[in-house]
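Researcher: Going back to the complex we discussed earlier. I've cleaned up the inputs and rechecked each line, so this should be the final set. Can you rerun the prediction on the complete assembly and write out the structure?
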Amino acid sequence: MIPDWVREAKKAVGHDVETLKGRLPLLEYLRRQNWTSRRAGRFEYVGLCPLHKESRPSFYVNTRKDVFYCHGCGQGGDLIRFVQLSRQASFRQSLAYLDPPIHREADWTALLKQAAEFYQQQLDRYPEALEYLRQRGLHDPALIRELCIGYAPGGVLRHQLTTQGHSFSVLREAGLINTQGTDALYQRIVFPLRQSEQIVNLYGRSIGTAFAHRFLPGGKGGLYAWEKVRHCPQVILVEGLFDYAVLRQAGFSNVTCSLGTHLNADQFRQLCDGPHTIYIVFDDDINQSGQQAAAQLAHRLAAQGIPACRVLLPEGHDPNSFFVGGGDARQFQSLLEAAQL
Ligand SMILES: [Zn+2]
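Model: Rerun complete. Updated structure for the full complex:
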C-alpha cells in the first residue's frame, strides 16, 4: 500500500519539489538544524535520530539518494518527509516552511501587481482622489496612467484579492492587510514602485489627516524610474513622487526620485553609475533638513567623481509647490542653470 505522504507528494507540484530539494540537500538541512554525524560509507552518514530518543546512532542519511532511514523508529524518506515528521506538519505546510523568501517573491510580485491594478481602477470612482491630484498640480491623464497612479479608498482590497484566490495570510505577509484584517492603505493615493519592471512596493500618500507617507513592509527598490534616466547626461533628483510627477508633466523627462532625502545604498550606487551631472532639488523646508541632506549628498557624490549641485528653490518651496504656486518650466530651467557645481 502506498503511504499517504507519498500519494500527497505525487499530487503536489512535482517540479517545484524537485527544485527545492535540489537547492537544499537533506544533509545540509540537518546540519543547519545542528544534527551531528559521522561518515559511515561513501555516500552515507550516521548520527542520533532527531525523530526519536536514542543513545546509539541509528539514523542514516544517504547523500546520493538524498534520503534518510532510521533503524530505531523505522521512519524514512526525503527532506520534505523529514520536515513533516520533525515539525508534525502536513506536506504543504512543510513545503511552505522550506520554501525560502526568494521563491515567494514571485507570488508577491503577482499580488502587488493585482493590488496596484485594482487601486488604479478605483481612482476615477472617487472624486476626493481626483481633487487631491488636482490640488497637487497633477492633471495630465496620460501621465497619471503612465505612472499607474491609483487610489486606495480602504476597506475594499481584502475582499477583492481574496476573491481572486489570495489567502488572508499572504495578504498579511505582504503587508497589504494589517493585523486587524483591514486594508493597510486607507484613503491614499498609490504609486507602484518598480525594480526591473516588477512592482516591489506601493507608496501611499494620505489625502486626509493620517500620517502623510506610507510604504508596505520591505524595500522601496532603487531610484524611481531610474531606467528612463540612467543614460541622461543631466539627471534631476527630487525627494517626493509628487515633485517627480509635476516635473514630468512640465516636460522634464530627466527626473528621478529617491523617496526621501536619505538614499539607500542601491540608490547611491545608481547615481554613481555613469557619467552624468546630478541636480539635487530637495525641499527647502523651514528646518533646513532637506538642504542639509542635499549638501551632504552632493559632497558624497563629488567624492565618487560624480558632479552634483544643489538647486535652490524659492524659500519654503519644494518642486511640487513651486509648480502648484504658478511656477513654470522656463522658470524652473533658470533655477537649474543658476545651480552651482
Ligand atoms: Zn528514529
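Model: Worth noting: Residues 101-122 form the longest helix (22 residues).
Researcher: Good, that matches what I expected from the previous run.
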